[in-house]
């Protein structure tokens, strides 16, 4: 019996579209990344090659899992920092630039359509520290009532911003698995800039309640939690001396931690299947076995934590996007795989499939 694809997730993060290339720091970054494109040309080049890479990913999954011609990802998540300067005039805006590229037709200077045409009903977008929720249209971003509540928690009504909302993603008929995306705005708006993250502890019982409700109603559903900030400790070995120095000394712009991750991470580890985030512009994956869960279903292994790299430094081999797969093998064991696409030779191309964790339900 061949492996069966139960669900697929496309993860984009930290696009930083519309970046101002006139600053000294940006010029230095371009030099180090070997990127000599500027302004709109940079944005269009990134959009063009990302689209081709995503099309390649669809084709690869169709062939491996014998999927139909119209196969697409079950859900696409964007974990923040869509724009670099959200107050810039069009075309560097959400309504006329970012959202059309994600979901519809977006034409480059030559008239070619480079839009991703991702189904809006399967798209979940949250703000990062570079975004401005006041400019993110309530019709399609998670900070509004667009995200329907599941369980006991009711988010902001009537289009009001809500820092936490849950969305049910319909399962494909061939697999019959439901996906639930719990999306949070982890920006700490009491700080300027909001590079450091924070989750209101009052949300913890709501998150636990929603997850418990989902598991009770549908024990086979997959729960994905979407954040912008990394929900664990930052280390010099993994994240560099500048990041750790900013965290230790509380320096704005380089203090990147989620402030109360120590209390939040165990909740995620116990109740979620996959936790996705960005912000640090790196590729990271891990699954920790806590061994202290009182729920048998979670006693063997906990959530898989994964960060996709940034798309903002076009030209660097360290940048790209991730695809996560929930795969059932011949023995009935469900594992989580990642297929990472990285930039090389003027495009984004896949690496090898990598098993990064298992689902114990």
Q: What are its keywords?
A:
single chain; 361 residues; alpha/beta; Purple Acid Phosphatase, chain A, domain 2; 7-stranded mixed β-sheet; 6-stranded mixed β-sheet; 7 helices; 13 strands; 24% helix; 21% strand; globular
Number of domains: 1
User: How is the quaternary structure best described?
Assistant: single chain
* CATH topology name: Purple Acid Phosphatase, chain A, domain 2
Determine the number of helices (DSSP H or I, runs of at least 4 residues).
Answer: 7
CATH class category label? Alpha Beta
User: Helix-strand pattern, N to C?
Assistant: EHHEHEEEHEHHHEEEEEEE
Total beta-strand segments: 13
Judging from the principal axes of the Cα atoms, what is the shape? globular
N-end to C-end Cα span: 20 Å
- Structural class comes to alpha/beta
Largest sheet composition: 7 strands, mixed
Q: Beta-sheet strand percentage? A: 15-25%
Q: Give helix % range.
A: 10-25%
Question: Strands, helices and their partners?
Answer:
Layout: E1 4-12, H1 24-33, H2 39-65, E2 75-79, H3 94-103, E3 123-126, E4 164-169, E5 179-184, H4 204-217, E6 222-226, H5 236-239, H6 241-249, H7 261-271, E7 274-277, E8 284-287, E9 304-307, E10 320-328, E11 334-343, E12 348-350, E13 354-359
Parallel strand pairs: 1-2, 2-3, 5-6, 6-7, 7-9
Antiparallel strand pairs: 1-10, 4-5, 8-9, 10-11, 11-12, 11-13
What do you see in this structure?
- With 361 residues, this protein is α/β, with parallel strands linked by helices.
- The chain has one domain (4-359): Purple Acid Phosphatase, chain A, domain 2, CATH 3.60.21.
- The chain is 24% helix and 21% strand.
- Residues 31-38, 142-161 and 291-300 have low confidence and may be disordered.
């Amino acid at each position: 019996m061949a492996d069966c694809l139960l669900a697929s997730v496309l993860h984009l993060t930290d696009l930083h579209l519309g970046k101002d290339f006139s600053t000294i720091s940006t010029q230095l970054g371009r030099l180090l990344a070997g990127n000599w494109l500027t302004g709109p040309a940079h944005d269009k080049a990134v959009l063009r090659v990302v689209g081709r890479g995503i099309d390649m990913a669809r084709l690869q999954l169709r062939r491996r899992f014998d999927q139909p011609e119209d196969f697409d990802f079950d859900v696409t998540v964007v974990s923040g920092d869509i724009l670099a300067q959200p107050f810039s005039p069009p075309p560097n805006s959400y309504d006329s630039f970012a959202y059309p590229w994600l979901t519809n037709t977006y034409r480059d200077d030559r008239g070619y359509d480079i839009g991703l045409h991702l189904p809006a009903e399967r798209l979940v977008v949250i703000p990062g520290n570079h975004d401005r929720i006041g400019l993110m249209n309530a019709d399609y971003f998670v900070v509004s009532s667009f995200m329907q509540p599941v369980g006991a928690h009711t988010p902001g009504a009537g289009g009001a911003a809500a820092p936490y909302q849950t969305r049910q993603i319909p399962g494909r008929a061939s697999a019959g698995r439901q996906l639930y995306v719990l999306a949070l705005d982890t920006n700490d708006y009491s700080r300027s800039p909001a590079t450091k993250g924070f989750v209101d502890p009052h949300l913890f019982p709501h998150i636990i309640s929603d997850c418990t409700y989902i598991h009770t109603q549908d024990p086979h559903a997959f729960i994905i939690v979407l954040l912008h900030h990394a929900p664990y400790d930052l280390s010099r070995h993994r994240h560099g001396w500048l990041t750790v120095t900013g965290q230790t000394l509380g320096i704005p712009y380089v203090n990147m931690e989620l402030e109360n991750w120590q209390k939040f991470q165990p909740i995620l580890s116990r109740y979620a299947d996959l936790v996705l985030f960005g912000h640090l512009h790196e590729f990271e994956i891990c699954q920790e076995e806590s061994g202290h869960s009182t729920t048998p279903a979670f006693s063997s292994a906990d959530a898989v934590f994964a960060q996709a790299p940034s798309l903002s430094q076009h030209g660097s081999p360290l940048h790209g996007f991730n695809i996560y797969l929930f795969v059932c093998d011949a023995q009935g064991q469900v594992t989580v795989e990642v297929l990472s696409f990285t930039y090389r030779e003027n495009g984004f191309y896949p690496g090898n499939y990598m098993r990064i964790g298992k689902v114990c339900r």
